[in-house]
Amino acid sequence: MAERRLSHAYMLLGPEGPARDGAARRLAAALLCGQTEPPCGVCRDCRKALSGIHPDVALVTREQGEKGPKQDITVGQIRAMTADAVLAPNEAARKVYVISPADRMNQQAQNALLKALEDPPGHACFILCAAAPDALLSTVRSRCVRAEMEAERDARQEGISELARAYLEAAASGDVCQVALACMSRAGLSREDTEAFADEVKSAICDILCGRAGDMGLDRARLRKLDALMDKTADYLRHNVQPKQIFGMLAAETLR
Ligand SMILES: [Zn+2]
Question: 109, 147, 156, 107: which is closest to 128 by C-alpha?
């Protein structure tokens, strides 16, 4: 584990989704856990931060409107965050604010954040998660340290495993068509992620069929159906169909 100099602001680049959320949690844990990367994963701060329940890790995200998340992260939200950031941490040595999606901060919000980044309270760290960093002011970008690639890659794989597990659990509790619908909501996955995801699910199915991963409450008929779905996914990918379309086709088929 390497000691590293602590920065007040980090930029985590990548598409919105469980992989980036996982990477942000790991980075938050690393910041609370003795300044090491990767985080130890066993201390109290790590465990709480990794499970998303640490009182000194706050998520700043778009507020929910009636029809889903609102357009922007507002200046009011950023001001509330910076007001909170001057207060002492609850139990850790510092406080971490995860701003996600940071590229949805409007201009005013970014200007308010910039003030905090120029003169940050000693114990405050900010993690900006963004898919389109160009949407951020260059003055904001230049104050952020790019978070390390390796941790991101690990977290990406972790995110896919999580997704594969969620997929199998959904299949255990409900109809296979629900699973395909759940996948559609994840259609932001890249082609590479979708391939990795299909592989993960296949190997999880294989483990269960061979009785190696315990009983997930899936009967064999359902597993075969899932297996067939994954075969189809692989087939579509071979024919250069985009992930979004694939999940759409799978949903349509299973809804039939
Ligand atoms: Zn730790």
Answer: 147
